[in-house]
Amino acid sequence: MMCGFATMSLRTVFFMLLTLSVVLEGMCGFAQDLPAGAGENRGLSYGLETDFNSGYVWRGIAFSNQPTMQPSLWVERSGLTFTVWRNVVLGRGPDVEDLRETDLNLTYSRHWKRLTIEPALDAYLPQPSPGVDDPNTMEGSLKLSHPAGPLSVFTTHSFDVLAYRGAYFGEAGMSYERHVNKKLGFDLTLRSGWASSKFNNAFIGLDKPAFNFVGAEGSLTYYLKSKVYIQPHIEFSDIVDRGLRPLLPWPTFINFGLAMGMEF
């Protein structure tokens, strides 16, 4: 039987995430004795961004090659960040009609020595056409990152806890970030991902575990003012499993984008 969350309203999901944020905020007080992080900024910060993309790619899967707009806003305090993200379809065609979606994310970031630990909860709220089976769902994830010379290595492990309960997706990679000056910086990332049979069956249509994809992305961030920026970016992804490739319309995909945002 499908989990009851599939019929929950956006208000209910928001209340669940808000409740969790209060719990995590309380945990911050107990974490002050950790070796690192006691001096983290407890002030409030927030921002908003609009990202225009040539396609819609998620975990190496290109769902559309039509343009999309992805606005988001976030609020952060004491390492706890709440983000609302929306995918708005700009193109036309049957492959984009069911890609309207709102995502809610709650992440807590904490430093322990040189390790960054980031547990997160993600709610996925699609808006499919009538008759299309695309239920709301939620994931719990854990990201670990650690500096390695000029690079940062990371791994993320995500588990669906509702509509596709037990579906797992893992990622690992490395990134390089550099600030050329106060206004200009760039970021390069290499990543790879693998998934359980339940994940691949739900989102690709093949019931088998696999090493799914390899990818690379780069971005250039330029601050027009101290709080306003533009960010051209490019993303390459390639599905490497021979069983998965024939099931996807764009197993190899290059996505171009331009983000504009403000942070305070």
What does this structure look like?
20% of the residues are buried. The protein has a single domain (4-30, 45-263), classed as Beta Barrel (Porin), CATH 2.40.160. It starts with 9 loop residues before the first helix and ends with a strand. Strands 1-4-5-6-8-9-10-11-12-13-14-15 form a twelve-stranded antiparallel barrel. The protein has a two-stranded antiparallel ribbon with strand order 2-3. The chain has helices at residues 10-30, 197-203; strands spanning 44-53, 56-58, 61-64, 68-77, 80-89, 101-108, 110-112, 115-126, 137-148, 151-160, 168-179, 184-195, 210-223, 228-239, 252-263. The protein is built from two helices and 15 strands. The radius of gyration is 19 Å and the shape is globular. It has 264 residues and is mainly beta.
What is this entry, summarized?
The protein has a single domain, classed as Beta Barrel (Porin), CATH 2.40.160.40. Helix content is 11%, strand content 55%.
Radius of gyration: 19 Å
Shape-level CATH architecture: Beta Barrel
Query: Share of helix among residues?
Result: 10-25%
Number of domains: 1
In DSSP terms (H or I, runs of 4 or more residues), the helix count works out at 2
* Unreliable residue stretches: 1-16, 18-39
Average pLDDT for all residues: 87
The global form is: globular
CATH topology: Porin
Class of secondary structure makeup: mainly beta
Fourth-level CATH superfamily:
monomeric porin ompg
Assign the CATH class: Mainly Beta
End-to-end separation? 45 Å
List the helices and strands and how they pair.
Elements: H1 10-30, E1 44-53, E2 56-58, E3 61-64, E4 68-77, E5 80-89, E6 101-108, E7 110-112, E8 115-126, E9 137-148, E10 151-160, E11 168-179, E12 184-195, H2 197-203, E13 210-223, E14 228-239, E15 252-263
Antiparallel strand pairs: 1-4, 1-15, 2-3, 4-5, 5-6, 6-8, 7-8, 8-9, 9-10, 10-11, 11-12, 12-13, 13-14, 14-15
